[in-house]
Specification:
Chain A: Keywords: Centromere, Chromosome, Nucleus. Chain A: It is found in: Chromosome, Centromere; Nucleus. Chain A: Belongs to the CENP-L/IML3 family. The complex is a heterodimer of chains A (341) and B (131). With 341 residues, chain A is α+β, with helices and mostly antiparallel strands. Chain A is 29% helix and 25% strand. Classes of the chains: A alpha+beta (341), B alpha/beta (131). Chains A and B meet through helix 5 and helix 7 of A and helix 1, helix 2, strand 3, helix 3 and helix 4 of B.
């Protein structure tokens, strides 16, 4: 049998996937030990119950809610220092100005004066070993408007690491682990800020896509979270393959019903197993099949929305409840780390 | 012979040639395909599991489209003592190589290769997978 080592670039570029087969005749080489290739752990620890707000001020992270964030995984940053954030802001500002000079105009027409702010978000970390999150914000003020007029926030991006011990333990000195990057705003700014970080800290950014398998984990984990107010419906969106016209199926479930179902399924204390997630999803699928004679298990799960957060397979998330933010970030950090490794 | 599930329709039994190898195809993008294979396995005579069955997992080129949990597939291979092969049908090179590989396995299962039986080849495949 011939040996093949192809690299398959997914058509939409949302994620780079690398398939390396040594020699087909030797049987499957991606060992069960590796966390690549969609192998999710057979169990995940439940994130700790949301901390009461003694240290964390919910207002400080409130601005992260209800915004659409595009996810990236970032390899460890070389010689990044928490003490030099102001310097970085100045350097990034100069870089952006230089890029605009070069004619890589981000806004056609109006000349915008872009101000860069880099700050630290110490509340967003899981363990003490985690690096505090770093926030980068781009605001603009039109030079024509008066000096004291309000600056408008045009782009935000933040790096974070929540319970990323797997990565930070194995990384040499001088490297800072902030594997998850979230961006909101124009793609052109994301690309400029990303290139500056890549050049300055020798790291690389890669879009983080979320597989249907991981989305079903999110559906199960987030359904189990207790929400005080009347929660919004849980919604799952599926894309049907192999049709001449693309077809999306949206399946909305009453949040109380979903939680009741999950509560009967989830038995292991403090942990969620793959089997529990499978049973939960299978129940939802068979209920749907009974009514509509459609096998949702043959389609691709592309989006999950619950009361605490929503996630799309292209790697786009929205956080809706600040108390569960660390738990969601912990899962996303894990996905980012497995993409890096 | 291609079938979407087992058992095969009994009306054609007398016209069907002897079956030497069964390759169960699981599409990693479809949980349904795994369930379908699991249900079809129940209709296979035990004698086939002595090296005449294999699992072919397709769609492996796109990690981010994965709907099936890998552990479930490994377990299937272990429980039914049959090798698990991987391929990506969308890439011609892999498609051709996989077809050649299956053909080779078929020749062994049909008894065309002197000195190598289906059973011995099957255990060879399993041992190399465990390394």
């Amino acid at each position: 049998a011939a040996g093949l080592v192809p690299a398959m670039e997914s058509a939409d570029g949302a994620a780079r996937t690398l398939l390396s087969i040594g020699r087909l005749s030797r049987g499957p080489p991606f060992g069960r030990a590796h966390s690549r290739f969609g192998i999710s752990p057979s169990g995940r620890l439940l994130p700790p119950a949301p901390r009461s707000q003694e240290n964390a001020d919910p207002q400080r992270t409130a601005f992260l809610l209800r915004k659409q964030w595009t996810l990236y995984s970032v390899s460890p940053l070389y010689k990044f220092s928490n003490a030099r954030l102001r310097v970085y802001a100045r350097l990034l500002s100069a870089f952006i100005a230089a890029e605009k000079q070069k004619g890589l105009a981000v806004e056609v027409g109006v000349e915008l004066d872009i101000k860069v702010a880099v700050s630290s978000l110490p509340d967003l970390k899981g363990s003490d070993q985690d690096q505090a999150a770093i926030l980068v914000q781009l605001s603009s003020r039109s030079p024509a408007s008066p000096k004291n007029s309000e600056e408008k926030l045009i782009w935000s991006g933040w790096f974070c690491c929540v319970s990323g011990d797997d990565l930070s333990e194995n990384v040499p000195e001088d490297f800072t682990c902030l594997p998850l990057f979230l961006a909101n705003g124009a793609e052109s700014y994301t690309s400029i800020v990303g290139s500056w970080f890549q050049k300055t800290f020798d790291c690389s950014f890669c879009r983080l896509a979320i597989s249907p398998l991981n989305l079903s984990w999110m559906a199960a984990m987030w359904t189990g979270c207790k929400v005080d107010k009347t929660a919004s419906a849980m919604e799952l969106v599926f894309s049907v393959p192999c049709l001449p016209q693309p077809l999306d199926i949206s399946y909305a479930i009453h949040p109380e019903d979903a939680k009741a179902l999950w509560d009967t399924v989830q038995k292991t204390p403090g942990e969620i197993t793959q089997q529990e997630v499978d049973v939960f999803m299978d129940c939802l699928y068979s209920h749907f099949h009974r009514h509509f004679k459609i096998h949702l298990s043959a389609t691709k799960l592309v989006k999950v929305s619950t009361a605490i957060a929503s996630a799309h397979c292209d790697g786009i998330v929205k956080f809706l409840q600040s108390q569960y933010l660390p738990g969601v970030l912990m899962l996303l950090t894990e996905l980012a780390i497995s993409q890096i490794q | 012979h291609l079938a979407t599930s087992l058992p095969l329709p009994s009306e054609m039994d007398h016209l069907r040639p002897r079956i030497d190898l069964i390759a169960f195809m699981i599409d990693i993008k479809s949980k349904y395909s795994l369930k379908n294979v699991e249900a079809s396995l129940a209709h296979v005579d035990a004698g086939f599991f002595l090296g005449k069955v294999c699992f072919l997992v397709t769609g492996v080129g796109r990690v981010n489209y994965c709907s099936v949990e890998m552990n479930a597939i490994w377990k299937l291979g272990e429980v039914y003592c049959s090798p698990v092969l991987f391929c990506e049908l969308e890439l011609e090179g892999i498609r051709v190589a996989t077809a050649q590989r299956l053909l080779r396995m078929l020749q062994i299962c049909a008894g065309h290769i002197p000195g190598v039986s289906a059973l011995s080849f099957g255990s060879l495949m399993r041992n190399s997978a465990d390394e």
